[in-house]
Every structure is written in C-alpha cells, then in structure tokens.
Amino acid sequence: MAGTGGSRSRRKTRGEVVMAKGTVKWFNPTKGYGFIQPASGGKDVFVHISAVQKAGLSTLNEGQTVEYEEIANRGKTSAENLKV
Description:
The chain is mainly beta. Helix content is 7%, strand content 49%. The longest helix has 6 residues.
C-alpha cells in the first residue's frame, strides 16, 4: 500500500558527505590503523581502528572492498562510517 522505500535516496548525508568506495591497501590491527585506496583514484585514505570497530568489525583485510565517508580532520582525510 505504501510507495517505494526511501533507502535508495541516501546518497548524501549531512550536506556534502558522500559515500565513497575503495579497496583496503593495508590494515594493521596491532598499530590500529591502515589505508584505503579510493576507487576514484587519488591519495590513499587513512582509516583508524575506531572506525573499524564502529562498523562492528575487528579488522580489515588487504584487498577488501569497502564503502566509507571521507571526513576532513586537522587537514587530513580519514574514512568513517565504514560498510563492507
């Protein structure tokens, strides 16, 4: 009875933040960080263990495809709100 769901309309959240796709270049859970290579090219994106844990994960695997929000923090870009 209701129309279509609204889940496909979430391309952008909080203004300019857009979900990006990339591949895990490397991640070291002991050090607590790693890097994602964006599918669109450009500089690798830093990812902290806290973002991984917020996604309900304990680690990321090299070569794993992920979606994430690029967040600017202190002049650097990091990945948040990960989805696998």
